[in-house]
Amino acid sequence: MKVRIKFTKEGSAKFIGHLDTMRYFQKALRRAGLPVAFSGGYSPHMIMSFAAPLGVGTTSLGEYFDLELTQTVPTSVIEGKLNSTMAEGIRVLSARAVEDAKASKAMSLVAAADYLVEFREGKEPEVPWLEKIEEFFALSSITVLKKTKRSEKEVDIRPYIYEMKPKGSQVFLKLASASANYTKPELVIDAFQKWLGCEPKDFCYQIQRLEVYADTGSETQHSFLSLEALGEKIE
Amino acid sequence: MRKLALNDEILLKVDKAARYIGGEVNSVMKNKEKVDIRFAMAFPDVYEIGMSNLGMMILYNMFNERQDVWCERLFSPWTDLDKVMREKKISLFTLESQDPVNIFDFLGITLGYEMCYTNVLQLLDLGGIPLLAKDRTETDPLVIGGGACAYNPEPLAPFFDMFYIGEGETSYDALFDAYKANKAAGGTREDFLLMACRIPGIYVPAFYDVTYKEDGTIASFAPNREAVPEKVCKQLIVDMEKEYRAIESPVVPFIKATQDRITLEIQRGCIRGCRFCQAGMIYRPTRERDVETLKLSAKRMLENTGHEEISLSSLSSSDHTQLNDLVTFLIDEFQDQAVNISLPSLRIDAFALDVMSKIQDVKKSSLTFAPEAGSQRLRDVINKGLTEEDILKGAGEAFRGGWNHVKLYFMLGLPTETEDDMKGIAHLAERIAEEYYEIPKDQRNGKVQINVSTSFFVPKPFTPFQWAGMYSENDFIEKAKVVKSEIREQLNQRSIRYNWHEPDVTILEGFLARGDRRCAEVILKAYQKGALYDAWSESFRYDIWKEAFEETGIDLDFYTLRERSTDEILPWDFIDAGVTKEFLIREWKQAHEETVTPNCRQRCSGCGAKQYGGGVCFESKN
Known about the structure:
Radius of gyration of chain B: 25 Å
CATH architecture of the domain at 8-233 in chain B: 3-Layer(aba) Sandwich
Structural class of chain B: alpha/beta
CATH topology of the domain at 8-233 in chain B: Rossmann fold
Oligomer: heterodimer
Largest sheet of chain B: 6 strands, mixed
Largest interface: A-B, 33 and 31 residues
Shape of chain A: elongated
């Protein structure tokens, strides 16, 4: 049985890096006593795949990994067992049975993600900004300098911003997140600040990921569905 | 959710922020308003090292079983955070509550190795606790030290209010009860310390005075007030079933600890009696845990942590009488759940090879032998029972089983060592290589690789070699060169790799291991001049220590090079560690006569540990 787990990372858990989060869940799955499938060989490992790595310092309400079990277990039982052994700040929101095929691997499905960006106290832009978001989002192109390990190049990130709007005193973003067009929320807000004529301050955002989506539509007509919604409950 | 002591900006800047956040699975949270005693348990090294320490975890578990005590952990901040904390004047805090350590009732510090002493001062300093016990006031925590290095607490004496000598299971309850009683009666810090020093195993350095002779040796060591005991007796548990406080749910670190696995302690003590080994003397008598209890304990700990590896811990696993039963159980029960089993300190024999071939990939693993000395003569001097025949037989069997990697560990600078003994290291490595090439070519697995490592011998308190002199830095380097050039002379030299440890750390370790109270001045000076994390080669600064010796006028050679006479008062003589001085003197003489002392199961050698009334001393009388 292939299961997709959706979990949160809040509070102090945001300081746990991606690899350590994987290790954390490997141990949690053992504690929960779930029938996890292992690869063969002298150092067998759990067959699991994480959807999209989360940077240290970012909180999340929608993290995902897929997991292989050797037998069918009701999804509510999986949720209960895992939640009985979680550490502070990490909570399992759901377990869903998903189709067992290479193409439906969590990581290869990721197409977009929602974020909430908050300015840390005293680090907001010095000019009025909330009311300017709509105007920025209406631009037809937003060119930024993207640094890679090898070079710097100018990229138009506007096509990768699917949604951008104020939400209370925060900014809501829906951004492209597939491996080919993965767009960091910091990059977008930095561009926004520069467009406002402000220099982004050091260490100015607290970012929360809200959800990760697959695209069930086409390149011209996106139809985003959360990774969770692709699976189903099993009794 | 808990509020962290460090803000996001700091945590995102330092390496491995998860070292400082607490909140791990099985860490213990309590309501601080509802406990009487808050105990901060510190390990003076970085989180990953400290979280691998079994002793600390046993006490953490044991203290927290008491409703009236909340024990929390803290570790040395790494150098990056150390700098930030000093700049921003942030107080050192515990991981669980994230509260500053100076509001605690106790600060306990585990003393596992000498090279962590400057980190002890770092903990006090960043914690806002006066470095010297005499400067502390009623509101400061009581600072207590324990662990292997507490068997000679003297170089740290001025920094501690108390030391606990021996195994923590026995006297901490009495200590906590005394603390509560004293608090209820409105007693002072000194009142409490007077109560504490009469609890078995507790040493309060301020209650003892030391005088010195003109030649620098100790003239007297005695209590300076009434009702303070002259001797402090090592504490240990005798009944490994009833008194042992097994950990059921060890804390599971978020980041990878050095020992990222369950540690199952299978026995304490060692029957072998190697004359250089402090652990083999101070943890006498050898006491085994029952195999059925161990099986249950292994199962529970695996279930409660989710670890994917279990390691058996003891000084000499092969000497556990039920090891076969235990290992077979672990393999049968857990191997199909992809749990790795690790067996350090195993003697290489047919059983060990059979087990190893089941639990690891022969092609990737190596065999480890610790002959410690290169010649049979010197092995007799140090009472290391391993013979050349044992090694060649074990290696031969292993080679035929497919292994082709061998690691050999030796010490240089042992008492009575000659050039022949040093060269013997090369010869032994050569004979192992020859043993390999005797196997027909079509039956062996490529080339053999033999890694020879030497460390320099450090005499330790409560061993038969506690009187021995050490060598100078140059002598040590010369010795390593003798081994190196002799290895190059061997026929199979291409199969032998040699590496040795730097001698400077060893010399300092020797100084701290056998130092007296006056040595504290050097530690303090070195710390003030910036020495920290001396156990880490990347941060060890011998130049700072050299300056500290110069500025304090303390003579390093007096403590390291000098061979002591057996009638000298040694700084740790006030401790009764179980083994008698008569026995140690007898062993020191036997060493010079190159006479081997049989192990505890072969014949009792009357070391004194029988006084405790249990363990191997009474095995045959059951």
